[in-house]
Design brief:
Length: 170
């Protein structure tokens, strides 16, 4: 089931979510206001039932950048937005769909990348990537403990494997 809603209409406890898309508008990014996104994310981590219903089902989507030829990771405002949001809500490992297509874009915004070629290949700063991954893993362990969520070690291992696939770890 797919449904678009804002924070007011978002009911994570409904248990009817195959996938939850956190849609972030270009306007939100350019104004640097991540309060709406944070409000939606906080609803997920409000209690065990909400968190459990969204665990492993979240995608992040930035709207309004289709005409921009740069990748999102090359847009300073998008990186700053995502880093600010992550400082306030670092629980991506627990809730992102455990797939390179979901994890890669989030990580690419949290780690400095260097373009290798004109064809869009990038290289991550591995030291910084390891620091980011370590912080995300600590947050994952914390939220799983606080909300008594199942599958913590399994989710963590899958995330670390995806990081390896994406070149964000040694």
């Amino acid at each position: 089931m797919f449904q678009m809603t804002d924070a007011d209409g978002f009911e994570p406890e409904s248990n009817q979510h195959d996938l939850v898309v956190l849609a972030i508008s270009r306007r939100e990014v350019e104004t640097g206001h991540w309060a709406s996104a944070l409000e939606r994310l906080l609803k997920i981590t409000d209690n065990h039932t909400s968190a459990r219903s969204i665990q492993g089902r979240l995608l992040v989507m930035f709207q309004g950048y289709d005409a921009d030829r740069r990748s999102l990771a090359e847009i300073a405002e998008v990186r700053a937005y995502m880093r600010g949001l992550t400082a306030a809500w670092p629980f991506w490992i627990t809730f992102l769909l455990p797939d390179p297509e979901a994890v890669g874009p989030v990580l690419s915004l949290l780690v400095d990348l260097r373009r290798l070629h004109q064809d869009g290949l990038f290289e991550a700063d591995l030291e910084q990537a390891q620091e980011v991954v370590t912080r995300l893993v600590a947050a994952h362990r914390e939220i799983c403990g606080v909300l008594n969520l199942p599958g913590g070690p399994r989710i963590e291992q899958r995330f670390l494997a995806v990081c390896g696939e994406l070149g964000f770890s040694n």
